[in-house]
Design brief:
Number of helices: 5
Strand content: 15-25%
Largest sheet: 6 strands, parallel
Distance between the termini: 34 Å
Structural class: alpha/beta
Length: about 190
């Protein structure tokens, strides 16, 4: 008699826009993970080691279904996004926009145009910043980029955590209870939409 095998949990690809492991984006990402239901698992997308985007670095024709045309570590990130039920991006704001490493990662994963691993993928966005705007400009810029990639940006009231609301707590997540609640509300609504 064959025993029923349990299915592996669904995954969400999680991008943390800042490369600082002790930063406020990492705190918000920690808070995202802490409210995921048991049937979902966050997989961090590591992109700090990506080369600067250069189409000459592709290893073959664009659009290989297994990412074989991409150099490592881009190929690993491609597979994480491809296999995920959805994507959550936490971003800070750098000079009114998206951090360079995050934009570079999205540029790599946006090829081939309109048919990339992000095409049709559901994406939730939140921003955090010690500044008074909470990264709202970066969030707007990021949503524009995602629109160009034909991703499905999740429609939800913007979660932009500013100043003390973006502070890191002792547990590694956000310190402010209201901020954790706002993140939980976004995550729960996003998960319900998948």
């Amino acid at each position: 008699m064959l025993e029923a095998m349990s299915a592996p949990p669904l995954t969400l690809a999680l991008f943390t826009g800042s490369l600082r492991p002790d930063g406020v984006s990492a705190a918000a990402a920690h808070s995202v993970k802490s409210v995921l239901p048991g049937h979902l698992q966050a997989v961090d997308v590591a992109f700090g080691g990506f080369p600067l985007y250069d189409p000459r670095l592709h290893l073959g024709p664009l659009g290989s279904p297994d990412g074989a045309d991409l150099p490592e570590p881009v190929r690993s990130a491609y597979r994480v996004v491809r296999d995920a039920a959805g994507v959550i991006i936490v971003t800070p704001e750098y000079n009114y926009g998206i951090p360079g490493p995050l934009k570079n990662a999205l540029d790599w994963l946006s090829r081939p145009g309109f048919k990339s691993v992000f095409a049709g993928k559901r994406v939730a966005v939140l921003s955090v910043s010690p500044s008074v705007t909470g990264g709202v400009r970066a969030q707007g810029a990021l949503k524009t980029v995602l629109g160009g990639m034909v991703a499905q940006v999740f429609p939800f009231p913007e979660v932009c955590l500013a100043g003390a609301l973006a502070a890191r707590g002792d547990d590694g997540g956000l310190a402010d209870a209201g901020s954790r609640e706002r993140v939980a509300g976004l995550v729960q609504a996003f998960v319900a939409s998948l």
